[in-house]
Every structure is written in C-alpha cells, then in structure tokens.
Amino acid sequence: MSREKRVVVTGGAGFIGTHTTVELVNAGYDVIIADNLSNSDISGVEGVEKILGRKMTFINVDCCDKDAMRRELFDKYEFNSLIHFAAFKAVGESVVEPLMYYQNNLGSLVTVLELMKEYNVENIVFSSSATVYGQPDELPATEATPRQRANSPYGYTKQVSEDIIEDCTKAYSFLNAIALRYFNPIGAHPSALIGELPKGVPNNLVPFVTQTAAGVRECLSVFGDDYDTPDGSALRDYIDVVDLARAHVAAVRRLVEKKNKEQYEIFNVGTGNGVSVLELIREFEKVNNLKLNYKIVARRAGDVEKIWASTDLANTELGWKAERELSDTLASAWAWEKQVRGL
Ligand code: WQD
C-alpha cells in the first residue's frame, strides 16, 4: 500500500486509538499502531485484530524515545500521516504529578514532530480536548471560543500542545495539522471486543457507572446537584467513541487529499447536545433495564458547570456528524463492561 494510505497511530492500543484504528482500516487505510502500553493493554490490539479479522502491525515503543522511534518506526515504514493519541489523560493525577504530564505529553509530541520534520511526514492529527475551553462564557463552545488557562496540568498540556503544533505549521511549510477537540468520549465498539479499560479507580463518569452496575464499585457519587442546570447536575457533551473515531478518519482524509484550507485547523468533536449527569444515569438505567446505586455528594473541585459543542465546522468542513444515539452508546458501554467482567 502506498505511503499516502499508511497512517501511524501513536497511543493506538488505547481507548480512542483502538476504535480509530478500526475505522481507518475500514476506510481503506493501512495502520501501524505505536504504543508503549504504559496506560493501555495489548488486549486492545488483539480486540482490533478480532474485529478486523487480520493481524495488525504493532510497535511497542515510547514516543519520548527518539532513537527507538527512529529505529523501530520512521526507519522501517513509509508513511505520510500520523495521529497522535499517546499521552497521559487523568486530570486528578496530573495535579499530583505535573512533571510526569509535562514530560510525557509535551515530550512525546515534540519528539514526534522532530521526527516528522526529519522524515518529511507531512500530516498530523492531534488528540486535543474541550478542556481547553474551561467554562465558556457563551455556549455552545465554538472553535473561536477563547481558551481559558486550564486548571489542571493535563488540560494545560493540551493547550500547550496545540500552540506547539501551530508554531510548527507557521515555521515549517511541509507540515499540515488538524487538532480535534474531543468533548466527552464514551461507549464502546458494538462488537464489545474493544472499549475503555481504565486502570484503577475510574476518573470518568461512564466507566464508573458501568463498574457500579457490574458490582465492581459499591456506589456512584454524583458530584453536585446544585449547579445552575435543569436538574442541578453538571452538563456535558457525551460523544460516542465510534463517532469520534470516524471524525479522525475524516480529518486524515482531509489532509491526505489536501483539502485543508490552512496548514493548521481545529475542529470540535461532539454531538452539540448538553446532557446532565442525572439524565445520563436515567438513560443508562432505562436502556439496560437496571437500577444504579448512586448518591449525590459535593461538587468535584475543578469541574466546569456546563459545556457542549458547536459542531458546525466539523459538519461542513469535515463532512462529519455524530450519528449514534446516547441510548445505543450507553448500551454498548454496558455490553463492554459485561464482556470484561465475564458477566
Ligand atoms: C463528567 C461529569 C463530573 C465521575 C475530563 C477531561 C476531558 C476528558 C474527559 C480525558 C462531570 C461527573 C464524574 C463520577 C460524577 N479527558 N462525574 N461522578 O471532567 O467532563 O472531562 O475527562 O479522558 O479532557 O477534562 O469528564 O467523565 O470526569 O466527568 O458525577 O464518579 O460527570 O462531575 O460533571 P470531564 P468526567
């Protein structure tokens, strides 16, 4: 397969990386998965292979290790596009261990960009986050909504990473980049062969919900019901992980086909709908026909009250729109949890 149709996916053994790999292959791209498994498991690659019915090229490599990346990846394979997922992503952990986050998340990006420059790899799609917006003054958040200084080192690494990439596209004419700002990725592949595998106690809502339903966690704590929202609980834009994966395919295609209008472009990836924590719990209970054990507790420090995306730009420029219903997404999350727990 030609260099143009081959894509390296760093962090490709992870939650979004595995789902994106499946959709890239389904769209006719050849994918190389690069991951050091520091925050994921080889079972993710195995799940992708089961879904696709074929072996995948998997390189166990740390994106911060420039010599290894040169030896194992850039010297060995011809490719012209790369999706950079590899990063740590736990907000709370980043507050406790900021240096680990700055070193890994920024170091890996700089190393990848240096090697792309050395080997003339022209296209990068970057895994960014709606966390760069903080609490917007106006909603929905558009790509022009001013970023607010993130209140966690994790979120700050996403902001700085966006700026690093923008600076590189200004300095180097070879480079084309798209940053995708994810809202809240949730759910799992319909096959239940890949999904979210948080290590330890989940930080995010939906894995905590599914683990509570599975009896792995005793009780879900809802962080606050005294927000200025219809039911008092916080609002988020929950985007299905398969829809999110397809946004990456659209972004890669835009760059490969040289349809991008600027060297650096940013797109929100969400549904455009704000859903509350309590609404999500009710939907989860309804679609999966179960009762969830939860209690209301105090707000979590650092949480924003409400945020959801304007997705007009992705709709018109990427030709991408979220398609899966929240109920289907929550059913897929529960099917995945049951598969993982052998229920
Ligand atoms: C969602 C809502 C919580 C857990 C962060 C990052 C973002 C992305 C996703 C990495 C909030 C509430 C949660 C719980 C709860 N990054 N909640 N009980 O904080 O919106 O976004 O994670 O994956 O970049 O910023 O996601 O899932 O942690 O929380 O009530 O046990 O659920 O208060 O309102 P968040 P989240």
Oligomer: single chain
| Average of the residue pLDDT scores | 97
Summarize the helix and strand pattern as letters.
EHEHEHEHHEHEEHEEEHEEHEHH
Cross-sheet strand order for the largest sheet = 3-2-1-4-5-6-11
Tell me the fraction of residues in β-strands, as a range.
15-25%
Task: Explain how this protein is built.
The chain is of the alpha/beta class. The protein has two domains: 3-187 and 238-272 and 311-324, NAD(P)-binding Rossmann-like Domain (Rossmann fold, 3-Layer(aba) Sandwich); 205-235 and 273-308 and 327-341, UDP-galactose 4-epimerase, domain 1, CATH 3.90.25.10. The protein is built from eleven helices and 13 strands. It has helices spanning 15-26, 42-52, 66-74, 91-96, 98-119, 153-171, 205-213, 241-256, 277-288, 312-318, 326-341, and strands spanning 6-10, 30-35, 57-60, 81-84, 123-129, 176-182, 184-186, 220-223, 235-236, 238-240, 264-269, 275-276, 294-297. A seven-stranded parallel β-sheet has the order 3-2-1-4-5-6-11, with helices on both faces. It has a two-stranded parallel ribbon with strand order 7-10. α2 links the parallel β2 (30-35) and β3. It is globular. The protein starts with 5 loop residues before the first strand and ends with a helix. The structure holds UDP-4-deoxy-4-formamido-beta-L-arabinopyranose (WQD). UDP-4-deoxy-4-formamido-beta-L-arabinopyranose binds next to α7 and β8. It is an enzyme of class 5 (isomerase). Belongs to the NAD(P)-dependent epimerase/dehydratase family.
